[in-house]
């Protein structure tokens, strides 16, 4: 028998999450320059192209650039308290290394913030979300080059000067740990992954970490009331068996992700991470200023995405690998999977929340979680909709576990499920991999009216927010 869930705390930030390159479109409007996404027409899974191609759905995406007012009104109808979106770096600095920003780009985000304020929705802004300006990738090899710290600093100072009095919550880099697995998309590193040395890769990681701490420092100078968070991809790793070697293998894999939170929260490299670098033959160039920035400018909160858990083993005969998001892992034989092979583990979210809270004692923000699925637009009572009971079940089960974590004593700031409106997938560049509460009439071949339709989950999430989670079914 199901039972209802205790209401979530007052002030809990309910909302939804997106990224500029996956919703905005208008890739060459308003003075915008090219980003790495403009040469990734098929997403993460295929090599980059030499230049923009006509088959890149992200060039139009869902046309949020022109339809933001309509979309934000729909978010308000659901009762959003917050909306997570990213700023396209190449809208503000088209090449990335200019001395002065592009006013048209800044004015666009002024208009977005105006609309959010009109509806009483708190902005949650990601500064860099998988869209390094293409020029920085091609000329500087992205974050391998220390010069990017200075270019990012100029960009960040521009954002905090312009919007610091309007935006409280900021994230420095999206899924910063993903650079280890997707160096071009996450770090703008133009050197092909199979040719990239471990030394250059981890030096790029260091530069991003320093830049993240620098952003926190700048925020405290220019926007002292702002709250700055890091953003990591959470993927809890379970031992496949109770064999101690499997347990240790799981710990090692888990630490490869936990290290990024450790550095953001504690301000220094953990011993296990330094050992990994030593054994990989990596000697980082770290200045005294770098060390001071990391130590003195730690984050106010930790945000993360959560989609899947994985298993780990030392037994090569049991390594049947499945991919979830960016990270590969060993499949868990006890779990079911989505249409794209991502294993569904609601309890893993409670596990992550407790692990992170016990480890860092910083407020936690779930800024991505959701189910990508092939939705079917149908007519019900004369209205076009999607009967997405599978999405409702997925989100209900995950939110129940968030409630359990809150009852455990974890400080959870909010929940912004990924793709609150249908958008272009980062991994596959498909629109058919839909996450939203709002259906957007556009297909993988680029056809469609771009009309918006409320899915069944739209009303469900509206009720969840209005009841502070009391309508969830445990």
From TrEMBL:
InterPro entries found in the cross-reference section: GH (IPR017853), GH_1_N_CS (IPR033132), Glyco_hydro_1 (IPR001360), Glyco_hydro_1_AS (IPR018120)
Gene3D superfamilies listed in its UniProt record: Glycosidases
Alphabetical keyword list: Glycosidase, Hydrolase
Presence of the UniProt keyword Iron in the record: no
GO BP: carbohydrate catabolic process
Superkingdom: Bacteria
Keyword ATP-binding: no
One Gene Ontology term of the molecular function aspect: beta-glucosidase activity
Signal peptide positions on this chain: none
One GO CC annotation: cytosol
Catalytic center residues: 368
Protein family per UniProt: Belongs to the glycosyl hydrolase 1 family.
Protein name: 6-phospho-beta-glucosidase
Organism: Cellulomonas soli
